[in-house]
Amino acid sequence: LFLLFFTTHEELQTLDVDDAFFSTPEDIAARALKPQGGVNFIRTFKKQEEDQAVNLPPNLDELVKNATYVQSPDNLVWQYFYNLKGSAKYPFPGGVFQWARYRINGTGLNETEKIFSESLNKHENTLTLATLRIFSNGLGQPHFHFNANEMGYVISGCGQVGVILSGVTSNFNIGIGDVIFFPVGTQHYIKSVCDEDLLLVLAYSTGNQLETLRMKDYFHGTADHILAQLFFKEQAEFKKFPRAAK
């Protein structure tokens, strides 16, 4: 079972091998492939009613006798493959992230991570992928991303999501199998409301380093005398918001 993300907002256009074959004139396919029997052999192929990219033949065991592959060299594989489950964990108050992403500063990355990171950044339209685990009753605090749309799929647990825009806030519940979407620059938060952890797979539409601003960062980054004017509270009151230890 695969969970797939595609970098397009338009209808996905796909051309399978069998579709391309049956769309090619018989004489052209025979000249290109040069099979024994020529065009008569090409004519023995019949287009199936069902899409074979989705529905496997019922007699697959009779058709396929050997399905082994030779492993490609590691330096080639690592451009396209990343062991996310076995990668480093990035904890935060309330949960933990694991990332398959590009990082500007590759210090501390192993050789596999460096090759994969650089491969992502070479392509204009690509994805940063992550798993997000929010512990029971934990919170992924309000934040937004400067350079990516975000899409997520709920693997386990249940939660509540808030999307915060100017003058409008949307709140809704999420559970297993649900998909969520946050356009670039949209502030949002996610919290777990079950006894078990909330686990999601997240995709971000950028091959660059993801740029994120969290509420605690921009709140602490705003001068307290400005906050006092905005909220009509004494300046000293804002000392009550704890700052993270450096």
TrEMBL record:
<dbReference type="GO" id="GO:0005886">
    <property type="term" value="C:plasma membrane"/>
</dbReference>
<dbReference type="InterPro" id="IPR011051">
    <property type="entry name" value="RmlC_Cupin_sf"/>
</dbReference>
<dbReference type="InterPro" id="IPR006045">
    <property type="entry name" value="Cupin_1"/>
</dbReference>
<dbReference type="InterPro" id="IPR053297">
    <property type="entry name" value="Dynactin-associated"/>
</dbReference>
<dbReference type="InterPro" id="IPR014710">
    <property type="entry name" value="RmlC-like_jellyroll"/>
</dbReference>
<dbReference type="GO" id="GO:0005794">
    <property type="term" value="C:Golgi apparatus"/>
</dbReference>
<protein>
    <submittedName>
        <fullName>GL25 protein</fullName>
    </submittedName>
</protein>
<dbReference type="Pfam" id="PF00190">
    <property type="entry name" value="Cupin_1"/>
</dbReference>
<feature type="domain" description="Cupin type-1">
    <location>
        <begin position="107"/>
        <end position="239"/>
    </location>
</feature>
